[in-house]
Design brief:
Blueprint (H helix, E strand, L loop, with lengths): L7 E6 L10 H24 L4 E6 L8 H8 L5 H7 L6 E5 L10 H8 L3 E7 L1 H14 L3 E5 L3 E2 L3 H13 L4 E3 L2
Parallel strand pairs: 1-2, 1-4, 2-3, 4-5, 4-6, 5-7
Helix pairs in contact: 1-3, 5-6
Length: about 180
């Protein structure tokens, strides 16, 4: 089990997803494999009163309206993932324009306001959006934990390499839930 304290927050990246793109079928398959771990992480966060923050692509809607994003993304492919992991009333929900959860979002301001200096990061795609988010978090001097069994990419090799970079370059603790 990984380290957490009163300065920790759980960050889910791009979990509200259509999976309707080249490579989406592979990403969905790998996401479904980690889904029980993601649900376990969310329950852990709520049990330990850690803030849960979702940062998600906006899909051209450009409104941080969770219900509009879910309605856009909910389809036969995505429904199991979305239904199991959609944000609850007390969770935070932000949209992002690009890969990193920090790039042109209020995430850093929210974390500062909440007094959080440690991020427990999970989501998809590990070798793109989580990797870019981890890089920015490291640059902003956040302590990072990435449960490796809570991150998926289209290719296992890309996911493993992203975990390696997060650990070796960004000093992330790689553990499991």
């Amino acid at each position: 089990m990984f380290h957490y304290d009163e300065h920790s927050a759980v960050l889910f990246v791009d979990m509200i997803n259509t999976f309707d793109f080249d490579g989406g079928e592979k990403l969905l398959k790998h996401t479904e494999q980690i889904l029980p771990n993601l649900v376990k992480l969310k329950k852990f966060a709520h049990q330990h009163k850690l803030p849960v923050i979702y940062v998600n692509d906006h899909y051209g809607i450009w409104q941080a309206d969770l219900h509009k994003i879910i309605a856009h993304c909910h389809n036969e492919q995505s429904k199991n993932v979305i239904d199991a992991l959609k944000p609850e009333a007390d969770d935070y929900f932000l949209i992002k324009p690009q890969h990193s959860a920090f790039f042109q979002t209020p995430l850093q301001s929210l974390l500062h306001e909440l007094g959080k200096k440690h991020l427990i990061m999970a989501g998809i795609a590990g070798d793109i959006c989580l990797l870019f988010t981890a890089k920015d978090a490291y640059m902003y001097q956040y302590k990072l934990t990435v449960p490796g069994n809570c991150m998926a990419s289209e290719e296992k090799e890309g996911n493993d390499y992203a975990l390696y970079l997060m650990h070796s370059v960004m000093k992330a603790e790689i553990d499991s839930i």
